[in-house]
Design brief:
By secondary structure, the chain is an alpha/beta fold. The protein has helices spanning about 5-20, 20-30, 30-45, 60-80, 105-120, 135-140, 185-190, 205-210, 225-235, 280-295, and strands at about 50-55, 55-60, 95-100, 125-130, 145-150, 160-165, 170-175, 195, 220-225, 240-245, 255-260, 265-275. Strands 4-3-5-12-6 form a 5-stranded mixed β-sheet, covered by helices on one side. Strands 9-8-10-7-11 form a 5-stranded mixed β-sheet, with helices on one face. A two-stranded antiparallel ribbon has the order 1-2. Helix 5 links the parallel strand 3 (about 95-100) and strand 4. Helix 1 (about 5-20) packs across helix 4 (about 60-80).
Length: about 300
């Protein structure tokens, strides 16, 4: 069996990324005719046209779309293997990282993380963006460098994860709330008016099932999209919020927090990143900073 020409991977990566023979030729510093010959070899090797004419442009075939991510990873890994190892100089590092985080994470862990980053690498800048879903597309295309959240079925299988801390849900109400003077039981908890945190408008939240064996149901007066909003409403009204304990530590200052009077499942908050960033020294340093910050503010776990 003949050994395939692995140089074709570079050509295939350029063609699939650029979607244009001319742009791929420019990227690889080849003449248009040389690029056309290389594409012909690729088509023969893969048994697929890869790019087909659509009007005045070219569009990828289904096989090309299937190969694009895999080929990109192979090329990046090969380049990393052949690239000389560099010693990370944090004092001179100039880099921007985008972190996609769940609601409340920035408020609770952001100040300590920014302080840590600024002290070690003053040239590094962080951008936080809200996490509105669990889709891994932004990690895959490089728009986001690092995410935090609960790992679920929607996470792409190639995504790397490391647990940051375990958390549990608790109840929160304003100081002086009438129910804060009572022994908290399932009946007392359900008797109050509640603010629900849910991404879907028709969701009743996981506690709806927990309360069923007690024959109880919460009176959900309003629904919001995040824990910060829920706590803001509970602070200024008689609404009760049910939120993750460690995730909202700083946000609950000056409020009455209480253990839920029934068992609830723990959750594990993790950081997530794309495998192409595994060996990047600056990204590894960022991951260690985030893990250590969370370890200092919450009971951390190893994974």
């Amino acid at each position: 069996m003949s050994i395939p020409d692995l140089n074709l991977l570079l050509t295939l990566d350029a063609v699939l990324t650029e979607g244009s023979v001319a742009r791929a030729a420019t990227r690889l510093r080849l003449s248009p005719s040389a690029m056309s010959r290389a594409l012909a070899r690729l088509r023969e090797t893969t048994g697929d046209p890869l790019l087909v004419r659509a009007g005045r442009g070219l569009v990828p075939t289904p096989r090309a779309l299937e190969l694009r991510e895999q080929v990109s990873q192979l090329v990046q890994h090969a380049q990393a293997v052949l690239r000389p190892a560099e010693q990370l100089n944090l004092a001179q590092l100039q880099r921007s990282f985008t972190l996609r985080t769940s609601d409340g994470f920035v408020e609770n862990f952001g100040p300590a993380l920014i302080a840590r980053i600024s002290a070690e690498a003053p040239g590094v800048r962080l951008t936080f963006m809200p996490k509105l879903n669990k889709d891994s597309a932004l990690l895959r295309d490089g728009s986001v460098d690092l995410e935090t959240g609960v790992v679920g079925d929607a996470i792409s299988p190639e995504v790397r994860t490391r647990a940051l801390f375990r958390d549990r849900f608790i109840g929160v109400m304003r100081l002086g709330h009438p129910l804060s003077q009572l022994v908290m039981t399932p009946t007392v908890y359900a008797s109050g008016q509640h603010v629900l945190v849910a991404r879907r408008s028709l969701s009743k939240g996981p506690l709806a099932e927990v309360l069923k064996p007690y024959g109880l149901e919460r009176d959900v007066l309003t629904t919001v999209g995040g824990f910060s909003a829920a706590l803001a409403l509970a602070r200024a009204s008689d609404l009760i919020a049910t939120v993750p304990e460690r995730h909202t530590g700083n946000l609950r200052t000056g409020m009455h927090s209480f253990e839920l009077p029934f068992p609830t499942l723990e959750i594990t908050v993790s950081m997530l990143w794309h495998p192409r960033m595994d060996a990047d020294p600056a990204h590894r340093w960022l991951r260690s900073c985030l893990w250590e910050v969370c370890a200092g503010q919450a009971g951390n776990v190893e994974s």
